Structures are given as C-alpha cells and as structure tokens.
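STRUCTURE:
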C-alpha cells in the first residue's frame, strides 16, 4: 500500500483524496450525474515541475435520459486543493 504524504501543509495528501476531489469538481463543473467512473491515471509531479496532482478519469454520465462517456483531466494543487487546470472531452459512445 502506498503511504500518504506526511507533509502537514498539504491539503491533498493521497491519490484517493485527489480522486475524490476530482470527482466532486467534475460533477460541479459539468452539472451531470456520474453513474460510473474509471481512473485512467493519478500521479504527483515532482516539485521541480510544479508539484501538482495530475488526475485523469473516464466518467459515465447521465443527464436526463442521455448517457455519455466523458474524459476528464485536471491538475490539482496539493497544498490548497485548488484545481489549476480542467479539461473535458467527449469519449466514445460505444464504450457505454
């Protein structure tokens, strides 16, 4: 098991916290109900490259009767929990 970062100044200390924050932010920004999700990747950049969490998720969403697959990528500041970059693109409809 990967140990969480022990720095007391960090708000987002583990990849699980980064994932939960990313799901909440995606739900808020896209204004959709997330039915299922898959983690594409979660990584923490070295401090020399900014030290941000890179989170990529594939979301199965529902809005009304429509289902869609949306690919979401974001960078999260571990010290503040602030989302620095957010990008979403439509995935394949066959994947649902």
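SEQUENCE:
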């Amino acid at each position: 098991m990967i140990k969480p970062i022990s720095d007391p100044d960090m708000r987002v200390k583990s990849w699980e916290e980064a994932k939960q924050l990313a799901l909440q932010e995606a739900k808020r920004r896209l204004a959709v109900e997330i039915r299922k999700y898959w983690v594409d990747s979660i990584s923490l950049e070295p401090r020399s490259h900014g030290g941000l969490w890179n989170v990529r998720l594939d979301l199965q969403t529902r809005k009304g009767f429509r289902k869609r697959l949306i690919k979401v990528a974001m960078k999260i500041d571990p010290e503040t929990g602030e989302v620095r970059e957010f990008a979403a693109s439509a995935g394949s409809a066959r994947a649902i």
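REMARK: The chain has one helix and four strands.
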